Amino acid sequence: MAHEELNRQVRQDLRVTDRTSHRRLREQGSTSREDLDAVLRAGFVCHLGVIVDNAPMVVPTVYGVDFVSRTLYLHGSVASRSLVRAPESTVCVTVTHIDGLVLARSVFEHGVNYRSAMVYGVPRLLTHRTDRRGLLTGLRVLTEHCAPGQWEYARRPSAKELAATTVLALPLDEASVKLRSGPPDDGDGPDAQLGLWAGVLPLRTVWDDPEPDPALTAGVRVPPHVSGRGHRTAP
Amino acid sequence: MAHEELNRQVRQDLRVTDRTSHRRLREQGSTSREDLDAVLRAGFVCHLGVIVDNAPMVVPTVYGVDFVSRTLYLHGSVASRSLVRAPESTVCVTVTHIDGLVLARSVFEHGVNYRSAMVYGVPRLLTHRTDRRGLLTGLRVLTEHCAPGQWEYARRPSAKELAATTVLALPLDEASVKLRSGPPDDGDGPDAQLGLWAGVLPLRTVWDDPEPDPALTAGVRVPPHVSGRGHRTAP
Question: A single Pfam family, by name (chains A, B) (predicted)?
Answer without folding.
Answer: Pyridox_ox_2
